[in-house]
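// run 5 | inverse folding | seed 20
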């Protein structure tokens, strides 16, 4: 049973000897201020007192190791562990000194933290730290974004029994085997049925014109809301932070017109339902074989495919679908771009290799727009295209093993 957090509870200094946890809220504030100072100065101070520059290519990695903080933080004594101990401060705010002998709340366990609404407020703050760093980087020029000779002429989404450029979601019931989580003598499989968001499979149709010789490109697909909370078209500086990546893949472009068809279940962001809730005992290698064990564990990385599409609304939630084709020669990295369980490489990378894209994660929305690009239309170059789409949510529940959904 998780302890509750009552209304108007305030976070306070944590001093729990039994858990060997002691830190002050002022510690979090000092770490925050030092991180902001490092971002604005463009350098961090490592544990040897030397300055380490937050460069365009490596700065985000250095900052991530500090904020998380990981064992390779440049200086844990100076920059602390703001992300994790923020979780702890919230998780123990109901009993910060262990006077009531209560354990931590849901925010203190990675398996349950996302069930707490405050999780998203805390992570919005953590995201703001990274955005602050990204805002200090040089803005992408039109030349950096363009792909000379390549033009995206049209984009369309189609799904079974759906109008063009319509995405549809609904509720799906699925069964999960819980037997390996039970602590008594096994008596066969024990299944639990739960309800989760699901979407109707769809296909992208992208028309690309190549006015030069055959070449390779990288297709990048993103989705974001079109309007703000007042119903007004979003300014690009706000909208760019709300784009979610739907897919990314390499494509060969022949001369003249190219028609690219891509199914939603081919996304390099997601993993299938079967791997999200896989049997961790089946085909599991011996733990002494660390290489194969690490590979096995890595295969669980990826965004659940049934959560690829946001929920939407009954009336249809208006969104912008953004498609960009960038120059693969500028995107490619040395080393392998394939590996064990690489179908979610955009989200997880490739185990044992460099991230398979020289561009930053979130490119081209990871920096402030160039001067004059006040909205998405003015930001675009010929190798980009936006399509207005709607996400319709049908508030019905579909039972397992139903092959298709009529919406």
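// decoded
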């Amino acid at each position: 049973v998780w302890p509750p957090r009552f209304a108007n509870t305030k976070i306070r200094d944590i001093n729990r000897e039994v858990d060997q946890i002691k830190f002050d809220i002022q510690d979090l504030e000092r770490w925050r201020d030092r991180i902001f100072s490092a971002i604005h100065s463009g350098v961090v101070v490592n544990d040897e007192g030397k300055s380490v520059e937050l460069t365009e290519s490596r700065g985000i990695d250095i900052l991530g190791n500090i904020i998380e903080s990981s064992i390779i933080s440049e200086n844990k004594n100076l920059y602390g562990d703001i992300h994790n101990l923020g979780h702890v401060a919230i998780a123990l705010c109901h009993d910060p000194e262990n006077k009531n002998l209560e354990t931590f709340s849901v925010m203190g366990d990675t398996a349950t933290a996302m069930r707490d609404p405050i999780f998203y407020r805390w992570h919005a703050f953590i995201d703001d730290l990274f955005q602050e760093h990204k805002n200090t980087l040089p803005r992408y020029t039109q030349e950096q974004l363009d792909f000379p000779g390549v033009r995206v002429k049209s984009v369309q989404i189609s799904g079974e029994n759906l109008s063009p450029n319509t995405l549809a979601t609904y509720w799906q019931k699925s069964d999960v085997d819980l037997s390996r989580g039970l602590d008594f003598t096994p008596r066969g499989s024990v299944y639990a049925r739960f309800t989760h968001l699901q979407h109707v499979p769809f296909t992208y149709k992208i028309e690309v014109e190549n006015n030069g010789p055959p070449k390779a490109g990288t297709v990048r697909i993103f989705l974001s809301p079109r309007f703000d909370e007042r119903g007004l078209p979003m300014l690009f500086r706000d909208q760019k932070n709300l784009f979610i990546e739907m897919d990314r893949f390499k494509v060969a472009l022949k001369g003249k017109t190219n028609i690219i068809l891509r199914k939603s279940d081919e996304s390099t962001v997601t993993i299938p339902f079967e791997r999200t809730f896989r049997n961790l005992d089946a085909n599991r290698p011996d733990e002494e074989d660390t290489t194969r064990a690490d590979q096995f564990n890595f295969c669980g990385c990826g965004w659940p495919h049934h959560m690829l599409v946001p929920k939407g609304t009954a009336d249809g939630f208006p969104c912008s679908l953004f498609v960009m084709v960038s120059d693969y020669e500028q995107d490619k990295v040395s080393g392998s771009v394939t590996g064990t369980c690489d179908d979610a490489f955009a989200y997880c990378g490739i185990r044992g290799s460099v991230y398979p894209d020289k561009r930053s994660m979130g490119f081209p929305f990871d920096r402030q727009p160039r001067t004059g690009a006040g909205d998405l239309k003015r930001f675009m170059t010929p190798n980009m295209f936006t399509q207005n789409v709607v996400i319709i949510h049908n508030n019905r529940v579909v039972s397992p093993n139903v092959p298709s959904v009529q919406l």
